[in-house]
Fold:
Amino acid sequence: MNSRQILLSGLFLWIFAVLGTGFVALTEDTTRNKIAENERRVLLRNLYQLLPAEELDNDMAADTLEVPASTLLGSEQPSTVYRARLSGEPVAAIFNSIAPNGYSGKIHLLVGVYVDGSLAGVRAVKHQETPGLGDGIEVRKSDWILDFNGKSLDNPGHSKWAVKRDGGVFDQLTGATITPRAIVQAVEKTLLYYDQNATVVFN
Amino acid sequence: MTTNSEITQSGLWTNNVALVQLLGLCPLLAVTSTVVNGVGLGLATLVTLVVSNTLVSLIRGFVRSEVRLPVFVLIIASVVTIIELAMKAFFYDLYLVLGIFIPLIVTNCAIIGRAEGFASKNPVGTSALDGFMMGFGFLIVLSVLGGLREIIGFGTLFANANLMFGEAASVLTIVLNADYGGFLLAVLPPGAFFGLAILIVIKNLMDERKPVTSRAVDDSLVDNL
Structure:
């Protein structure tokens, strides 16, 4: 093979690299707005799952606050807090919280906390837990995560904020203990975060 | 010249991607815990196979042989990325269900296997049909294996069908035994190996009963890899 052929092959490969990247870039560019719109729609749907629409009258997705990274929220990056208000009065805050110790990596949670420190609800929004076992944390697959509704730091109290196997009050999932354990810990930490930062959150 | 019926038979049975070529085992074993998961990955793989086979066949006349594999990889990776973006834009709810499976398609060597072994040597129409039939054969095995594991592992069938086909599909879910405690082995990866082995045994037994003339496994396609 002479150098001319080597150059030709290189050129050929280069053309396909440009074409492939070009088409991907083009698709990305034409779908970007649509994808952002879809993500916002799903975010709103998730937020309104945690709070009944009649309990607030503001646009939660617009009334946000960037909070610095905190170990209590499990994040290494600043995260967004969504705030619900009724006639200007704070009702609840929804935190992006991460359980770093899931069975297969991080579990991303939305944790809704009423202004009095009780839980409006918890949803798992992103995770890689085992299909059929750990993914029972998704509300569409099991009711497990609804157990958090109404709980707070004093109800059931620190020593009981654990799965039943560890002496707490929360069920584990059939065949999965690590996943619920990670979430229970992350939710309690989020409540602690709210407890320490309530005034900042609703400034 | 390969006839259309030979391609169909090869894709669905004699040269089935999952049962004979044993390609794409990583996604196959990873996601077949339920029928719905199996169908989801099967459909996405089918689309990718048809598109990549068609494109590879289109350029087969002037692709330089020493760089053909990187070019095929580029095409497949681009196609999968574009499918993922398009799903995110137009079928976002479906994407939320299948999203994690889509990148797995790139790891499925059945796709580059068909590009190299078939599409690079055959006309566009035949290659597209081959992609469709190979993908369909893969889809069937994924669905059957998913069904097998779902029945043994959970005691249900078509659970969560609504996630893929809309709320109307909820009625498809069949609970075979409400008190069934579940059999974890079938759900975990070892269950996938056992399940696949059982399917291969059944296929081979059926082949032994048939006249030998219908067997046309083209080993050269597989050996090329």
About this structure: The beta strands of chain B are 156-157, 174-175. Residues 85 and 95 of chain B are 9 Å apart (CA to CA). Residues 4-223 of chain B form one domain.
